[in-house]
Model the fold of this input.
Amino acid sequence: MVKSSNTSRDRLLETTAQLLELQGYHATGLNQITKDSGAPKGSLYYYFPEGKEELCSEAVARSGQAVAERIRFGLSQAPEPLEAIVRMLQGMAEHVGEAGDGCGSGVSIAAVALETASSSERLREACAKAYDSWQAAFREKLMAGGYSAERAERLSLILVSLIEGTIILSRTSRSGEPFRQLAEEIPHLLAKKEG
Amino acid sequence: MVKSSNTSRDRLLETTAQLLELQGYHATGLNQITKDSGAPKGSLYYYFPEGKEELCSEAVARSGQAVAERIRFGLSQAPEPLEAIVRMLQGMAEHVGEAGDGCGSGVSIAAVALETASSSERLREACAKAYDSWQAAFREKLMAGGYSAERAERLSLILVSLIEGTIILSRTSRSGEPFRQLAEEIPHLLAKKEG
Done:
């Protein structure tokens, strides 16, 4: 397969993903996307004839996939799920801390998910699919590490909730501290014996 | 003290709080607030001369306080923190499930927090203060239940992250299931022995 050299389309999607994470769906206007991406005027409706909803759904799908890949890579860095997850959370604490406003963590589609859950079925589904793929990455690692299918299902859902919730608190408090606190406590949540 | 009978102001704040939870900050316009609240035209700038940012900050403060009170009430329903928290999460699963789109849970300022963290210091601070007050409610219950101050601090932060993150996944999946799964696993997180 020859890799697509369709850079205007890629730039549009990348810029959209960044703006969605930073400021959400409603504040992100098509003019800003075109301007920030440097894509030629007119290219937006050429590649995304259905407009903002189509462009943003594809941007969410693309972000979601990139995050799922990063989660899988992170989880592959240690054989045991617990150790891999603790390291991942410590990495997020540093990353979020560096970004200052807790943004740029690159893993949050939460703003779009919240804004559009009751207004756009297309965007709601794109967000749901992204969360499912993140959950699958955690679930597989947990099952490979000896957790039962049922518990791996529950824990993976909770880990995704935790990451999204902790990003909110990190951005609000402008600090990586919430991720560090989470890394300290996660061994309890993932304990294999009954609590 | 005579209770304020300032009902237009109250209606404006209540409508704003509902709209912020449902659709976020940017999609919520002053015209819609005035119309939905039934408050007389002109009353918005009379009570909130600084406009949308002032009105929304006060609405977030008010929602935040109401949620903190509900958390305290919920936690008072069982002597042990674990039992009280499990019951609270089960209640949220039902509430979110009933609402259909996972909205109306009344506890999420997450959309506003995410949209405004990097654009409005005033709103960011209002959200941070609300989260602090929710965290304080959990922390006090945990400490009264025998958890160390340090662990109660960490766990209470994580519980607030979990609630916000689980609301996102509930709204996205249109289901109370994420809260039910969380209720099943929370005994692990709150285990008093080292994991």
Notes: The domain at 63-189 of chain B is CATH 1.10.357.10 (Tetracycline Repressor; domain 2). DSSP finds nine helices and no strands in chain B. The two ends of chain B are 51 Å apart (CA to CA).
